[in-house]
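hi! just following up on the protien thing from before. the input was this:
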Amino acid sequence: MRRLSAILIADIHGFSTLVEADEEPVLLRQKALRDDLIDPGVAGEGGRVVKSTGDGIFAEFASIRAAVRCAIALQTALIAHEAGLPEDRRLRYRIGVHIGDVTVDGDDLLGDAVNMAARLETLAVPGGVCISDTVLQMLDAEQQAGFTDLGTQRVRNITRPVRVWQWSDEAPQGFEPLETEAQAQKIGFCVAPDGVTLAYGDIGLGPVVFKAPNWINHLDYDWRSPIAGPGLARIARHHRLVRFDQRGNGLSDWEVPDISEDAMVSDMAAVVEAAGLGRFALFGQSQGCAFSIRYAAENPDRVSCMVLLGGYARGALRRGAPDQEALHTATNTLIREGWGSPNAAYRHIFTESMIPDATPGQKALWDERQRVSTTPANAARINQMNAQVDVSALAAQVAAPTLVCHAEGDRRIPLEEGRRMAALLPKSEFVTLPGSSHILVDGTEAYEMFNDRFRDFVARHAP
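and the predicted 3d structure came back as:
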């Protein structure tokens, strides 16, 4: 038998660690929360607990509005209940809610709606609620107002992308998402030679700018980021901007066999062909600079000019610098162990090296963008790939005029690596930008200076 049901799935973030540190008190507190708050809260909204899943629950509701109302009420009560404890001892739930047809198997429920709710739960921040766009459209205006758009997400074991919305009592404020640009962008898909599906975006009119992949990106969510969004919008106002989510993150395939320099450059070629690009300006940022150099050396007929920002020709493990090798090792450990963690220690070390000039709200949104864009394992694989790249020998073969910009106090990539890269390129101009941010932040002097130089340089050299 099948029926339409609203599904709520919740679990405790970091439960195994909490139990390992203090097993009996944690288990007693969990049981008390179930008895006093969670089970009565579900029943009070007309729901039923289908089953317990260790540290979590799986509940069914006849009404989607009741399910969402219950989820937010539970999180509000649970956060208040745990507020008096040290942060590392709090029981913090994540909740996912979806609606759809389910198959009834005795007292159990099976089906796509259950799987989707489980995947949405993994996207939620501790203390947060994630819902699908299908759910959002069924809510009244008052309920909808509490949710923030996380953009379109590719979730594990679900073939189709899904738009996700999140409620959190700590939602960062102070940035208006660029909805006009997000809606104007056309998203397409192509297949790399090894069968990996790549998502690419196309927006704007004018000289063509093709952006190489860098660190963690997300075609849709980038427009909702106060770090990535404004810069992309600046380019798209005067150019046709084509970019893509590198394999392993964003809307491209996440479960991929190969994350390597060869694969990234091959993916660039696949997107260029799929988007029908002829000759264009190539924009590389951070790791994308090395990929851009290799692509330009191998495809001189395609690249009219390059703009490289905050980049390097050789990765951290190719510089012969023990301090940078040690920093890389530490960073990879933090990514694997603390990616998306609510623990500020993880976030502080990594984010401060990328955007020290940003406001606290911008840093919080930057962290959120990274968390929803890929898995810890893939982020570590990408970081390892970046550390091993070396295109120094290829740089001398690049015929395209190149603008190289680098922040003088860049805490992620040393200024001397940017200067070295510029020295290796035969037709380069080097500009030192003020500030310490590796990723430029809207409203800073470096941001304005770079965008002015970018527009002028592309206007002089791009077809």
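The two ends are 62 Å apart (CA to CA).
The chain has a mean pLDDT of 89.
cheers
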